[in-house]
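Recall that a protein's primary structure is simply its ordered list of amino acids. Everything else, from secondary elements to tertiary packing, is in principle encoded there. The following example makes that idea concrete.
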Amino acid sequence: MFSSANSLLTLRTVERDDALKKITKLEVAIETLEAHQKFLNAEIKQRTEIWFLDQQEQEKLETKMSKKVLLVDDSEDTLQLVLMGVEAYSPPFEIKTALTASKASEMLSLEEFDALILDIALPDVTGTAFGGLIREKYPDIPIAFLTNYNGPQAEAQAEKIGAEFWFKPNILNNFDKLSNCIENLINGESCKTGE
């Protein structure tokens, strides 16, 4: 009977030792899981913060790029020159182009623009006449004339409708200044181009 009790005690000791080993393994597994959970929580937090910052930056960029300027000139070369020159300075606005006043009028009826830049010499109507029509229909849109015609009459016509007057030779050789002038125009500020 005593040997049976010893066997039973030995069996119970082995079972207890096995149970303690299992408990120890479970405790180690739990600690490991907790460490992984902390790591994952930190990783999730970091990625969420990065995503949130990316979203904020994207929203800022979209807000900046939501500004649109319509450039109207009868010269495809001038349009391309302005686009390439200004885009090199990563402006906070988008430039769309039209070769005629009628095309510009169509574009203005389809989308909202924050500024309008016109040549005085357009094939279908003078830029000043078109600027006057635009001023009546869209009184809040800032307008500038970008032209080769330099003289008091052209400037007076621009002034009459509350438009800026930019002389092409003074501004097309400095795209940084042109980019700044366009941004000023969008913001309702004047830009002296040295005419």
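The mean pLDDT is 82. The CA atoms of residues 47 and 120 lie 53 Å apart.
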